[in-house]
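User: Could you write out the 3D structure of this protein bound to iron/sulfur cluster? I've included everything you need below.
Assistant: Certainly. Input first, then the structure.
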Amino acid sequence: MWDALKATDVILIVKADAMKILLQFPEGLKQQALMHAKKLEAEGNEVVVSATPTFGACDLAIDEARNVKADKIVHFGHAEFHHVDFNVEYVPYDIDADMQILDRALEPLKPYSRIGLVTTIQHMHQLPKVADFFRENGKTVVMGKPYGFAKQRGQILGCDVGSATSIDRDVDAFVYFGGGMFHPLGALLMTTKPFLVVEPFQGSVEFIDKYRDVYRKRSRGKMLASADAKNFGILVTTKNGQANMAMARILKAKIEGSGLSAAILVSNTFDFDSINNMLEFDAFVNTACPRISIDDIDRTRKPLLSANELNEVLAIKKELAASPGKTLA
Ligand code: SF4
């Protein structure tokens, strides 16, 4: 088994039995592909590197591995998402972020005594120290139990923020420690308390609560724009952890049951230029990574709805049909 990598590691410490291996890296680690390939080749393995975009452990390159007859996939940067019927080795990637920035979180957190702490898999090893820091500064720290795909207390994924939602009632505010806005945004939208992002790479400390309203309005806008839609394209991915044909079939039946038309559109990674060429559709419904219908809505010319938003659209349509002349607010 491989040890977790550190951002500073330059040497692969792995000894594997000779085999055919497919290496898979998320975008931020692809720059290390050649180095890892050469190390494994030097041990007698045949190595192939997946050049396909990789979004998470929900997105294992199993088809590619089968195509090149690989014995195993070595997947870097993510923990196991769910069990798959293929030999996969996960190599986590720990990042040691500078914790001095935590001093700057104390002032904005002054009004709040119980804080909920969340982070990503890359910083889970730092979370106990982050928690100690806040405790030493008089805070009560709560880290929620993982639900769904997350495996550790306080860990969140872009699509699994149970560690935050489960403690929403128990805390006065949330603190996310880590890089980027992708993960905290998901947690923000599913919780109700003030949400402080402590971002050690950009050196920023800020409450992001304003985005709750921004995203609520965007969602409402999509639904209103879909009120006249007659033809719906339902997006289904073949990615191992995202594929949901069963849901797509249910949604198709619902749409058709409302007197409208729908088709299921399948792809591994959706190319939005290609989706935009499908001019017959008035709106699209996402059943893949739930973040697509939040983060990628500006990439399609037609509204890109979540399943919940579709349900609301169908309800709006029903209401309009029952009250001719009624306008939408
Ligand atoms: S947020 Fe999307 S890409 Fe990330 S783990 Fe979840 S399903 Fe995969």
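Residues 210-225 form the longest helix (16 residues).
User: Perfect, thank you.
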